[in-house]
């Protein structure tokens, strides 16, 4: 997008909220859609890609996550201004004006128009008929395959009037654009003098008897246009998905698909620790150059040159051989396996540059806590990589492969294995693991409750929660406890609630049994953190914080409504929470892994209900 219409966006927002395919508003009030990754690292002056050495400065490495998502590298979104060969180069992330249909702001005119090709799309546009300023239509249509297009004005009008109006011959206008009700807004053809047609019901969609989605547009015989404006074209392929009308600022227009990983330091058997430390000391740019070298001999040569012959070629060859084998061993088939690898380091402890964990002695904490929590580890340093690999529209789902999602980000599909946008942050954390025997005994009782059985059924109906496998009482307990603890920690640690995040390690499968949670921060400086979390996790500091969190679970300022609504039908989005609302358990969206769903504070402290809470005896 041109300089006049630039939008300042934080790099983290390009992974979550405003990534490829998402819309945002520039300072002139123009709605723009972020373009595909094909043109992210191009110079604004020449439209050519930056040279490789400049791009390498933006590369990140996390070998486990790269293997999981099958990409060669991650890249931090580029800065707006980059120095290349001593010259200042502007490298904006491209965006396009969308939607294209405009409405005249003159209430006597209200003509609908599309700006002609080549119009200056960075500034406000004016009506051809009365010269009044125009504004972009707020109505769009989208489908669950990710396509998005302007509202099908002509098809909607023709369907209701039986006419054959088209963009080539007809001039449309709206009536009642000032109304807050959609049913009062009407579209008509000025050329054919057709009757005006109301937009009533355009947003409605429902699942029919066969379990298929039906919308007002599909019932009117309107099909998806298969349009992908963020990739610069309308595809020729036919899309069979049902189009749904929406407002362009609706929350269901964009759900980014993100994944995160905690960087595990490589500790292969027999590996030369000095060589490994030297490798970890390299800059991200140097690491990605070495990792990107084609064969082993090239890696050895590059590493030798960077370190000025500090180690022999034989030494380096042995190191890279072992490293490659070690990384292959870290390949995972399931999310549980992936997290289980991280958990191992939290339990055993490690002291490396990217991860420093100190397991604590249970006996140093008060006796009551050791009965419920079997392991406590203080994480002084951790490195978290967050990446975006695709997005959903209408509702978040899990029914596509990683490759299918990645194709949504690239016009040139052959590039999907090259790189993905990511940000890396350094922080600290506390890891807690619940006592396995005690939590399983508690689980047997809670699993018989009607509220839990109903919640299980609802969870099965919503595909976007499939990542979390089968719903278990243990999961709800640990997730709810995590939210309570974060809400308490913000008073004690000096971090805001948006700066703290959770990562859940819960599985009841025999080969990966785990009942843990990590609360971490990724808002510290590049060296690590403010140190607040590690301090509050020490013996003597942690017990009163956990005791207060447990006490907070017994009552919410919205009770008895919060508890009764939750346990008699559920509350929150799609009724996927029990006793959990904004006054007690909910967190900022970026802090929670599960979309603020699957929560119930009665699992922790059930004193006001007939249920047994895990910590009731405390």
- Rounded mean pLDDT score: 83
Whole-number radius of gyration? 28 Å
Model regions low in confidence, pLDDT < 50 over at least 5 residues:
524-528
Count helical runs. 17
- Helix proportion range: 25-40%
User: What fraction of the residues are assigned to beta strands by DSSP?
Assistant: 15-25%
Largest sheet: 9 strands, mixed
C-alpha geometry: globular
The assigned structural class equals alpha+beta
Q: Cα distance, first to last residue?
A: 59 Å
Number of strands: 27
Describe what this molecule looks like in 3D:
- Among the domains are: 265-329; 352-394 and 423-603, no CATH class.
- The protein is 26% helix and 21% strand.
- It is built from 17 helices and 27 strands.
- The strands form eight sheets. Strands 3, 4, 21, 22, 23, 24, 25, 26 and 27 form a nine-stranded mixed sheet that branches. The chain has a three-stranded antiparallel sheet with strand order 1-2-7, with no helix packed on it. Strands 9-8-10 form a three-stranded antiparallel sheet, with no helix packed on it.
- The model is unreliable at 524-528 (pLDDT under 50).
């Amino acid at each position: 997008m041109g300089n006049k219409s630039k939008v300042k966006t934080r790099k983290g927002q390009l992974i979550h909220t405003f990534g490829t395919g998402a819309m945002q508003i520039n300072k002139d009030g123009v709605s723009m859609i972020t373009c595909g990754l094909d043109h992210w690292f191009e110079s604004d002056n020449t439209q050519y890609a930056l040279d490789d050495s400049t791009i390498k400065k933006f590369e990140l490495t996390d070998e486990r996550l790269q293997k999981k998502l099958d990409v060669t590298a991650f890249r931090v979104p580029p800065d707006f201004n980059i120095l290349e060969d001593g010259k200042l180069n502007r490298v904006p992330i491209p965006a396009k004006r969308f939607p294209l249909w405009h409405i005249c702001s003159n209430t006597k005119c209200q003509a609908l128009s599309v700006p002609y090709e080549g119009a200056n799309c960075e500034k406000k546009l004016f009506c051809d008929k009365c010269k009044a300023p125009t504004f972009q239509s707020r109505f769009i249509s989208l489908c669950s395959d990710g396509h998005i297009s302007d509202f099908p004005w002509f098809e909607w009008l023709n369907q209701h009037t039986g006419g054959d109006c088209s963009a080539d011959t007809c001039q449309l206008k709206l009536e009642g654009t000032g109304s807050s009700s959609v049913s009062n807004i009407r579209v008509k053809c000025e050329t054919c003098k057709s009757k005006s047609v109301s937009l009533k019901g355009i947003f409605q969609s429902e699942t029919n008897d066969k379990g298929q989605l039906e919308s007002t547009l599909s019932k009117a015989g309107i099909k998806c246009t298969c349009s992908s404006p963020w990739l610069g074209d309308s595809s020729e392929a036919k899309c069979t998905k049902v189009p749904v009308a929406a407002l362009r600022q609706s929350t269901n227009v964009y759900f980014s698909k993100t994944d995160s990983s905690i960087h595990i330091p490589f500790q292969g058997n027999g590996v030369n620790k000095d060589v490994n430390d030297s490798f970890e000391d390299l800059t991200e740019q140097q690491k990605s150059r070495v990792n990107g070298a084609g064969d082993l001999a090239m890696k050895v040569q590059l590493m030798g040159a960077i370190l000025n012959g500090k180690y022999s070629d034989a030494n380096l060859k042995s190191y890279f051989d072992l490293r490659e084998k070690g990384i292959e061993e870290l390949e995972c088939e399931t999310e549980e396996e992936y997290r289980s690898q991280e958990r191992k380091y939290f339990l055993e402890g490690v002291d490396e540059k990217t991860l420093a964990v100190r397991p604590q002695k249970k006996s140093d904490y008060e006796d009551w806590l050791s009965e419920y929590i079997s392991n406590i580890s203080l994480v002084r340093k951790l490195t978290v990589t967050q990446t975006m690999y695709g997005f959903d529209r209408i509702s978040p789902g899990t029914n596509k492969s990683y490759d299918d999602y990645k194709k949504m980000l690239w016009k040139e599909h052959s590039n999907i294995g090259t790189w993905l946008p990511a940000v890396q942050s350094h922080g600290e954390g506390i890891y807690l693991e619940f006592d396995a025997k005690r939590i399983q005994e508690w689980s047997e009782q809670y699993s018989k409750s009607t509220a839990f059985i109903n919640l299980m059924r609802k969870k099965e109906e919503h595909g976007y929660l499939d990542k979390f496998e089968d719903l278990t009482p243990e999961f709800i307990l640990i997730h709810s406890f995590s939210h309570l603890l974060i809400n308490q920690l913000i008073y004690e640690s000096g971090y805001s609630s948006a700066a703290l995040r959770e990562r859940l390690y819960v599985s009841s499968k025999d080969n990966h049994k785990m009942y843990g949670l990590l609360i971490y921060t990724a808002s510290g400086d590049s060296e690590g953190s403010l140190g607040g979390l590690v301090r509050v996790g020490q013996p003597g500091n942690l017990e009163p914080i956990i005791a207060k969190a447990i006490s907070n679970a017994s009552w919410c300022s919205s009770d008895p409504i919060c508890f009764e609504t939750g346990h008699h039908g559920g509350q929150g989005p799609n009724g996927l929470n029990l006793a959990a609302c904004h006054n007690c358990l909910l967190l900022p969206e970026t802090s929670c892994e599960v979309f603020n769903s699957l929560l119930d504070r009665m699992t922790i402290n059930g004193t006001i209900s007939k249920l047994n809470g895990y910590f009731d005896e405390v």
